[in-house]
Specification:
Blueprint: E1 10-19, E2 22-27, E3 30-37, H1 40-60, E4 82-89, E5 99-102, H2 112-123
Antiparallel strand pairs: 1-2, 1-4, 2-3, 4-5
């Protein structure tokens, strides 16, 4: 069996928040890096571009962009409208190669319907 080529990924923590007007996404390591959208997919689309632009400027200034990767997080800051997502980026910071993954707290099987209902409320 042939193994797929291994691609280095940088992982960034993002606090995604549902607001009355849509969504705001913030880089967890620098909350001033934000993007907004009326629907979640729109906010993600803009966030990829904002993140790429921010990180490229940091690189040009001689900073190590790994300092902004997901390393620490205050999970107590999450609630019914704020949830944690992770963005993976390739070293070239191409927004077309970025992907977002949602994280969920560990739950008992019996609690999954409630968790899914909360997720549906966040994204619909």
């Amino acid at each position: 069996m042939e193994q797929a080529e291994k691609v280095e990924q940088l992982i960034y923590g993002v606090v995604s928040e549902r607001t009355p007007r849509g969504y705001i996404l913030r880089l967890s390591s620098d909350p001033q890096v934000t993007a907004k959208g009326t629907v979640f997919e729109e906010a993600v689309y803009y966030f990829y571009r904002v993140l790429a632009d921010f990180l490229k400027k940091q690189q040009e200034a001689g900073h190590d962009i790994r300092c902004y990767t997901f390393q620490e997080f205050d999970f107590h800051s999450l609630n019914a409208t704020r949830f944690l997502t992770l963005v993976s980026a390739t070293p070239d910071l191409d927004p077309h190669h970025m992907n977002m993954t949602m994280t969920f707290p560990q739950s008992r099987l019996v609690d999954l319907p409630k968790e899914f209902a909360q997720l549906k409320g966040l994204l619909s």
